[in-house]
Queue: 2 jobs
Job 1
Amino acid sequence: MFANFDFDVIRRSLGYLFLDGMAFTLTLTGLSALGGIIFGTLIALMRLSGFKVLGRIAGLYVDFMRSLPLVLVIFWFYFLVPYVGQWLTGASRPISVGAFTSALVTFIMFEAAYFSEIMRAGIQSISKGQPAAANALGMTYAQTMRYVVLPQAFRNMLPVLLTQTIVLFQDTSLVYVLSMPDFLGAASKVAQRDGRLVEMYLFAAVVYFTISCAASFGVRRLQARISIVR
Amino acid sequence: MNYNWNWSIFFEPAPGGTGTYFHMLLTGLWLTIQTGIFAWIIALIFGSIVGVLRTLPSKTAYWIGFAWVEFFRNMPLLVQLFLWFFVLPELLPRSWGLWLKQMPNAPFYTAAIGIGLFMSARVAVQLGAGIASLPRGQKQAATALGLTTLQGYRYVLLPIAFRIIMPPLTSEFLNTIKNTAVAITIGLIELTGQARSMQEFSFQVFEAFTAATVMYLLINIIVVTGMRFLERSLAIPGYITGK
């Protein structure tokens, strides 16, 4: 069945696929997860702040982002970010941002909606006595969050946050629609250049599968360890 | 922002001679809905079978369910669509592959089946959890009444499990509809695709994307309202999800 296929094309392009493509994918995943978790935590804090208006804005943002397909959001930001940049910097023309920056902004803004729901559940899972005790000790709101609530919430939600990061890792393949050189984009470029679609796409599938499987196995192990401690 | 807004663009004729730009977007919306529903039916059928397999006492059944879920969950949807669209026809015997490639509407069927199978893994996990959440007595009572395993699932376990997982199933249905946008990569011109081509023809980027965004929001509102209604009308009074 595989007689007509040339699997050597994979070996020949390994350097490009991993050193360029996978590096792009992993950098994008890592930075987006970091930014998404920070921004998502802020949104969660807004929703739980008790200020009606703030909570409402945060809730609308989350619902809005979660009702849109990621592909559409990627297109939105790709065209919107230059105008926003112009507005922020006061430049006379829409500024050109690199493809990477545009993708990074997209994923941070989009994933923040999903991360915020996880962090909200995490913060709500902390018993009321904890912030009350922090208050009694004379801690301010910021100190309570920084030293008491968030570290525990973060720790409790770590497996879920990591699982969401695996989803994010898979979702970054969608930057393909902007022809960016992520792992899938790189594989697809080689595939089209050499006319080797079958080999390259099969290889890409195997790589994504292996990494995601290994990562979710790791998360499961971590979850088992954490749940024993609690 | 020095961008030339032109909201009347929607009423201008689109290239291609099929009507206005608004009409073009509506065509995309309809295709999104069709693909989404078709994919959802496939996801429900396979997801139910696999979800049940995961809860059966048989080790083999459990492993089949486990393998199915891991296979479809650990690859990006985009890669899966490429596998069905570009790779599968080459791996089949020549005549079958040719038939597949020449099939009219190939992107539509590939998208519906590919997204359906991708989502089936998620439905299976939800259903498995729903069945596992039922008190053990339910299954034992079914056995005590002399129901076979199949009958037990059909008449006792599944009707309750499906009612319990209605809320997560609603969001999985919405995910299915949203995921159809990924199919623009295999040439399905659904709502996002039409918005993109409108942007390319007319240069009115933000109008096109705003319209698509509003349409996706409308789909969400309609589905959420509809499912809430369905949930209420299916609720069993006095039972877990009923009042």
Job 2
Amino acid sequence: MLCERCKIREANIQYTEVINGVKTEHNFCAQCAKEMDFGPYSAIFDGEFPLAQLLSGLLGGEWPVQKKDRLSQITCPTCGTSYEEFVKNSCFGCADCYTMFDLLIHDNIKQLQGSDSHKGKHPVCQEPLSSKAQAEAVAQEETEQTKSTEEQQIRAWDRKLKEALRTEDYENAAVYRDKIRALREGKEADA
Amino acid sequence: MLKWFEQVQDGGSNIVCSKVRLARNWSEYVFPSRLSDEDSREMLNRLHEGLRDLGDLDGRDYESAYLDELSELDRRALKERRILNASILERKAPMSILITREEDISLVLNGSDHIRIQVWAPGLCLAEALKTADQVDDYVNARFSYAFDDKYGYLTSYPTNVGTGLRATAIVHLPSLSMGKKFPSMLNDMGRIGVSIRGVYGEGRENYGALYEISNQKTMGRTEKELTDLVAKVASQLDEQEKQIREMGLASHRLEMEDEVYKSYGVLRYARRLSMKDAMTFLSQIMSGIADGLVKLQEPCPVFRLMLGIQTANLQKLSDRPLDKGELDMARAAYLRSELPDLTQS
């Protein structure tokens, strides 16, 4: 079948339009399709991120116009991505976007993924502290440890020993008792 | 040191290779699309510093490079070898890669996501590739905390990757199955079971070389193992169907099939100019000829390696000057003349 627009090239794109319940079918060649306006689907013929553009049709297409305008104002405070930008590019700007747009995207993600809850691996190490802050905390702890005298160490173990006795954790209590004894004996030997 | 695609597989299977990819983001930074160049560089430096001893994990040697330090040709060659994807090639922001010498394990940093771990393996090796990717993932995660949500799982730039962040892929050679009338509708039906399938090489609707890539469509709601098992199962079924068709063909038309394979070998061995389409078509014939036991090469040589070798950027790299289309066809023929091993006498 020849393209109905140029009537020269072979038609390889079938376009079905439904306006007010009236369905019309068109057949175009790729070149003519590229020159025409298919709204969010145009990108398919441009070769530019067709999936992202298709998704944006899927992700944002179902709200009434007025509500859509208000929704597009919602912006993620962390990265500045607006809901409008998210719908346009189908791309989150940061982890917080998921929380920020949760109510708006939840159903779409479920539709896209066939599920709305993760099943599978969890991170092995998910510290609430950022790793930079974590590294600083570890470094600080190390400095303090080197600074701390053996007396402080003994007092710390003594506290743990008492806590262990209180909770009737005799195994750990014995460990701390032995540690304190060893350190005291070491001190005496040094003296 | 042999690259993963140079390692020979036992014949008989039409499953050429497998890949597992995990998409991860570091919780400290906004996602790459929103990250400034300055922050990108800072993040990359910190990632490189933290992953300096990644090789200790399994005794491998990793090389690292910032993508803007590589030539355009090198970046395109990495795309041909499936280390980088097309969208990364277009991105202008600072990005880098960590890659083993065998090129089987690679980490693309600050691409579509902060960290993309990718593991390639010859043949059907999805379970092993997942295990390797998992180990690298744990190593990275021990040093960098991930953007993770109890409900949505691993948070990624695109909602198409969220959850496991896993894309399992198998490349399958389907020269006979793909000629069937029902093949296009079968491709469409794949979506119903949660996998997508597409041609690896070709232009428009044409496929060169009959290689098809099968991947999981969805990344959430199933475990990593369930997703890799699904892709492996579909790949195995397609392999089995392809085998059955070829066996039927061999039973009734062995001579014709043998003739096709030998003619293809003859062209690849002696041609002076080869277009991409012709070279891929003839290599595809050799690939099935070897799998069917119709021909045997004197030296072990995976045909997929030759298919990667005849791609444009690789041929340009082998040449000392830029090549136009005609010269590329000549370079492609010359490459195959020198790389295609002799046949064993039958």
